[in-house]
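A.,

Following up on our hallway conversation. Structure tokens first:
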């Protein structure tokens, strides 16, 4: 149905436009041809009248009028036009062989023609069917000044002229019809060619809807259709990446849920059946507590992302000292840094930096970024946290590590939900790929921006902005 409707609608639109143009052109050409042919016929009759006038003048000068009848016979045969000569009173005194001899001696019935040549003008007239000739005529009059003659009239039958015009019309109609058919064929081919990319995208969309996210359409042009195909492929690629991250997330979450639950279940079972003696139970109970807290953090992250996806993040904005929040997070991460022999360097834009934001969510942002910096830094490495004033009423926060860095391709998706950089070599075996997604959602909820600068082997720098308190 899609194919039929698109192709036929496009084809019918072309044909309607072409038909209108052909009809309009045919009408215009018909008028132009008719006017041109009539004008040419009148001009030819005038030229022949001029020749006959010259012959009449010569005959009067030489006294030999025998050739006059011959000239009139030639004109009648060549032009298909009869010839009439009239005197000063408008009476027909001579007619060519093809004209009705009964006209001789009668006054020409068209006073405007007679008066025109008597005034020395070249005149013409198209008569109706009720003319004295019994048929419509084209009459062209040429003035004379010799003897008693006042003018010569060339008469050509209108039906004969229309026969010639009809032949021209038939040739013109044939050419227009041929052009119409060729244009129709080209329009059909063009319609199919123009709609083929749309039909390809329709088929590809159905395959993607069926779960084949690897389907792509071929880009065959650089026009709007090519741009649409490119956008379609970009959409398909995004859907494929989302599907891959979704599957990876399910696998990661399944693992992250199963591992602590297995540990908790194993330790509790061992305590209940006496495998673990009472004096060692406190140690294993602490492990159980840590695993349950890990489960709680995972559930909290999933809930945060769900709220962000539904645009239900509620901000409780207050004025607070950003420097103090950074110090608190440094203290929280101190045990992890000591374990890896790392240190942190902090540089503040001012002794006190008051910002207007949701304190808990900004603390969560800083914790996620600094925690990632610790995870992906080498042992004995350095983490740099810096705040600088940026523009009017803005503060820029950066968290820099000197770890393995992030490739340009991974940087495109680093803030996507469930995305983990190169999961086969990732040092973060426990994360679910939600930390940076939460960072982006929280920062965007504040109307601010977050970005990453990184090169492989040189570490990464994450930056975000906040509004200063008034």
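Then the amino acids I'd put at each of the 470 positions:
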């Amino acid at each position: 149905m899609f194919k039929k409707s698109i192709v036929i609608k496009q084809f019918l639109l072309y044909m309607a436009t072409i038909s209108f143009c052909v009809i309009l052109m045919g009408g215009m050409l018909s008028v132009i041809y008719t006017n041109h042919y009539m004008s040419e016929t009148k001009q030819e009759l005038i030229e022949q009248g001029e020749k006959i006038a010259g012959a009449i003048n010569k005959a009067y000068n030489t006294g030999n009028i025998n050739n006059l009848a011959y000239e009139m016979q030639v004109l009648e045969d060549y032009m298909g036009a009869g010839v009439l000569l009239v005197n000063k009173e408008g009476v027909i005194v001579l007619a060519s062989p093809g004209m009705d001899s009964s006209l001789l001696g009668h006054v020409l019935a068209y006073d405007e023609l007679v008066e025109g040549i008597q005034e020395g003008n070249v005149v013409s007239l198209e008569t109706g069917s009720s003319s004295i000739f019994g048929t419509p005529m084209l009459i062209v009059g040429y003035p004379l000044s010799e003897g008693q003659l006042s003018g010569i009239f060339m008469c050509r039958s209108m039906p004969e002229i229309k026969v010639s015009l009809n032949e021209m019309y038939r040739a013109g109609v044939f050419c227009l019809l041929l052009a119409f058919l060729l244009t129709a064929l080209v329009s059909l081919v063009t319609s199919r060619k123009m709609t083929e990319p749309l039909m390809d995208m329709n088929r590809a969309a159905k395959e993607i809807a069926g779960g084949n996210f690897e389907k792509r359409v071929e880009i065959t042009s650089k026009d709007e259709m090519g741009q649409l195909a490119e956008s379609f492929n970009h959409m398909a690629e995004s859907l494929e990446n989302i599907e891959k991250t979704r599957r990876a997330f399910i696998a990661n979450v399944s693992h992250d849920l199963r591992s602590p639950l297995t540990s908790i279940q194993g330790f509790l079972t061992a305590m209940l059946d006496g495998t673990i003696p009472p004096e060692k139970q406190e140690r294993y109970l602490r492990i159980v507590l840590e695993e349950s807290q890990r489960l709680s953090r995972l559930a909290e992250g999933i809930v945060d992302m769900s709220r962000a996806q539904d645009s239900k993040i509620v901000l409780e904005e207050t004025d607070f000292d950003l420097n103090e929040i950074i110090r608190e997070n440094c203290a929280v991460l101190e045990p992890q840094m000591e374990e890896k022999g790392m240190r942190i360097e902090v540089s503040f834009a001012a002794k006190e930096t008051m910002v207007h934001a949701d304190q808990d969510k900004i603390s969560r942002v800083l914790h996620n970024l600094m925690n990632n910096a610790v995870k992906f830094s080498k042992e004995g490495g350095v983490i740099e946290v810096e705040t600088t004033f940026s523009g009017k009423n803005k503060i820029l926060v950066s968290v820099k590590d000197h770890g393995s860095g992030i490739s340009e391709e991974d940087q495109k998706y680093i803030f996507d939900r469930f995305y983990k950089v190169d999961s086969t070599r990732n040092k973060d075996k426990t994360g679910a790929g939600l930390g940076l997604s939460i960072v982006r959602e929280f920062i965007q909820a504040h109307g601010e921006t977050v970005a990453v600068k990184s090169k492989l082997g040189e570490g990464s720098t994450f930056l975000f902005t906040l509004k200063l308190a008034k």
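Residues 423-427 have pLDDT under 50 and may be disordered. Curious whether your intuition agrees with the design.

B.
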